[in-house]
Write a structure and sequence with these properties.
Blueprint: H1 11-24, H2 29-32, H3 37-45, H4 53-62, H5 67-76, H6 80-93, H7 101-110, H8 114-124, H9 135-141, H10 147-159, H11 168-177, H12 181-194, H13 202-208, H14 214-227, H15 235-244, H16 248-261, H17 269-274, H18 281-292, H19 302-311, H20 315-334, H21 341-359, H22 367-414, H23 419-426, H24 429-435, H25 439-446, H26 448-455, H27 459-462, E1 481-482, E2 491-492, H28 493-496, E3 504-508, H29 514-524, E4 529-533, H30 541-547, H31 556-564, E5 569-573, H32 580-592, E6 598-603
Parallel strand pairs: 3-6, 4-5, 5-6
Antiparallel strand pairs: 1-2
Helix pairs in contact: 4-6, 5-6, 6-8, 7-8, 8-10, 9-10, 10-12, 11-12, 12-14, 13-14, 14-16, 15-16, 16-18, 18-20, 19-20, 20-22, 21-22, 25-26
């Protein structure tokens, strides 16, 4: 009978068993012999003996050298005991005996001995890829009249892994309906080894958790872990096993699987916390371990885990509880950005309490080893909290600034048609500076769109003295030529002065068309421009411009900034017609704003 196990024999156990076998070699005459054909035949013949263990061990020691004779025995020997022994020996040799696969298949199909068929099925599960051709026969073996053959067939299908995915429906049928508990257990084992290929078996494995036989329930839990790993599909059923199963081993295994599922098994948290007080020390140990794998969800279990650490009578359980706290703190620290505000605050509070209690632990069990890890997780959480506070302040600041900016943007849109907005918000230096937070004046000064809005209500007033309504383009002298100062050549005035840029003095005799050109320049300009007769600048150029702004723009400092930043161009005509004082005042203004766009017309 093949016993269903969750994992292959560990490496340590293999080494131990090998060492024991080597110690027995000097005591066994059969093992001390060589592997000649005659000796192998003699040992095969001894399979008939009641005590044939030594003979089988000697055959296995010969390895591949004995395979041919074992095949012959399997094929032709009349003794069922010999044929069984041959199958067992081939099974023990494993993949090195893969040439025996066709004969093992024949034995599985045709041997009259159920025991031989069962051992042949088991051997086929250990021959590696060579046994893939046996898959249909192993599936057929699930219907054999012998429970041992059915059990070994299921086990062999499990050992052949994912390649046997076509066997899944047949294994499900065996799991659900076979009368033998061993067959059901091995079917569950085989389905678990299929992993994702056996996803359709999950409901039936869940059903098998209620099987009356321990081995079936255990292998079903193991299979569910392999198939539904990291999913919450099986959490309710595992919780039910934890509550109701009479076997401590089943409850322990269910706890382990819930821990492997992790945060997706958060519905099990209350029960796992409850199990920290279970009568079984093993259940308490694994419950604590499972809680440690719950990540951020496990924070709520931290107070209970710390209580267990200080109160449990088992040092192993206390170790597991504190390990869980450390693991939770580490995971929460790494996942801090995904925590809600409440989760973050709760986690900080819990781990601060943990550190305080550990520091008060007079026994100092494990304290020096892990307290710094908990503190590291706490530091990460506190940094995250501080970061969120800064982000919150910054976000609020951005929202306030955007709201403030939209408020002023709305004002600038209303501005051209509202004298109150003009007077109160934009041309009032105190309001503009205080409520504008310093940046509004800068924006009005340097952003062309805002500058155009700022002067839009005064456009007609700024150009009123140019009398553009009566300006006749045909009267303009397009062939007027000028000679730049310091140069001996002349050029057309439109080529010499295409745009108003930097201070320009246009000097010439009366009647040449200087004033007409200035009016033409003003009319064709795309920028904000003010036309001033020189005589109106008797009190100053800034004052003359302010007089055109309807009385609202009484902020001379702001107006100077606008002129200096080229927000407004200035055209002054008739410099020769004013008093020396006015001329000096205009000249001083131009010298002060030597980077401004200013043009002055005067006679020679």
């Amino acid at each position: 009978m093949i016993r269903c196990i969750k994992q292959p024999t560990s490496s340590v156990l293999k080494v131990f068993l090998l060492g024991c076998s080597l110690l027995l070699l000097p005591c066994s005459p059969a093992l001390a012999q060589g592997c000649t054909q005659a000796e192998i035949k003699t040992n095969i013949a001894r399979f008939n003996d009641i005590n044939n263990t030594t003979a089988k061990e000697a055959i296995v020691q010969c390895g591949p050298k004995s395979v041919y004779l074992l095949i012959e025995a399997l094929k032709t020997d009349k003794s069922a005991a010999v044929r069984e022994g041959a199958a067992v020996a081939l099974w023990s040799i494993g993949e090195e005996a893969d040439q025996a696969v066709p004969w093992l298949i024949k034995a599985l199909r045709n041997d009259e001995s159920a025991t031989v068929r069962a051992k042949a099925a088991a051997a086929l599960g250990l021959m590696g890829e060579a046994s893939y051709e046996a898959i249909p026969d192993l599936i057929d073996a699930l219907k054999d009249e012998s429970a041992e053959v059915r059990a070994n067939g299921a086990y062999a299908l499990g050992n052949l892994g994912k390649k046997t995915h076509e066997a899944v429906p047949h294994l499900i049928e065996a799991l659900r309906n076979d009368q033998s508990a061993q067959v059901r257990a091995n079917a569950a084992y085989a389905l678990g080894n299929k992993k994702e290929a056996a996803k359709s078996a999950v409901p039936y494995l869940i059903e098998a958790l209620k099987d009356e036989t321990f081995s079936v329930r255990m292998t079903s839990i193991n299979a569910l872990e392999q198939i539904a790993e990291k999913t919450k599909d099986v959490v309710p059923q595992l919780i039910e096993r934890l509550r109701n199963d009479k076997s401590v081993l089943i409850r322990i295994r269910a706890t382990e699987v819930l821990g492997e599922i992790g945060e997706a098994a958060k519905d099990a948290l209350p029960l796992l916390i409850e199990l920290l007080e279970d009568n079984s020390v093993y259940v308490r140990y694994y419950a604590a371990s499972a809680l440690g794998k719950m990540g951020t969800e496990g924070v709520q279990a931290v107070p209970d885990l710390i209580d267990v650490f200080f109160k449990d009578e088992s040092i192993d359980v206390r170790y597991s509880a504190l390990s869980a706290v450390v693991e939770i703190s580490s995971k929460v620290g790494k996942q801090r950005k995904q925590l809600t505000k409440v989760q973050l605050e709760q986690s900080i509070l819990e781990f601060e309490t943990v550190i305080q209690r550990l520091e008060q632990d007079t026994e100092k069990i494990f304290q020096d080893r892990w307290i710094e890890t908990v503190r590291g997780g706490l530091d990460n959480l506190q940094q995250e909290q501080d970061s969120r506070s800064y982000q919150k302040i910054f976000s609020k600041g951005v929202i306030i600034w955007l709201t403030h900016m939209l408020f002023w943007f709305g004002l600038i849109l209303v501005y051209p048609k509202s004298p109150q907005v003009q007077a109160i918000f934009f041309w009032n230096p105190s309001v503009r500076k205080f409520f504008g937070l310093g940046y509004v004046g800068i924006a009005l000064t340097w952003i062309p769109f805002l500058r155009s809005k700022l002067f839009a209500p005064f456009q007609e007033s700024l150009l009123s003295d140019a009398d553009l309504e009566n300006f006749d383009e045909q009267a303009y002298f397009p062939n007027l030529e000028v000679q730049p100062q310091g140069r001996s050549i002349t050029q057309p005035i439109q080529e010499a002065i295409p745009d108003l840029e930097l201070p320009i003095v246009l000097e010439g005799e009366s009647g040449l068309g200087k004033s007409m050109f200035l009016r033409h320049l003003v009319k064709s300009s795309k920028r904000i421009i003010v036309y001033l007769p020189a005589e109106k600048c008797a009190n100053g150029v800034i004052e003359a411009i302010q007089a055109k702004l309807h009385g609202f723009a009484q902020d001379s400092g702001f107006l100077r900034d606008l002129i200096y930043s080229d927000a407004i161009d200035i055209c002054i005509d008739g410099l020769n017609e004013v008093t020396p004082d006015t001329r000096a005042m205009i000249t001083t203004f131009v010298e002060s704003y030597f980077k401004g766009n200013i043009i002055i017309g005067t006679q020679s």
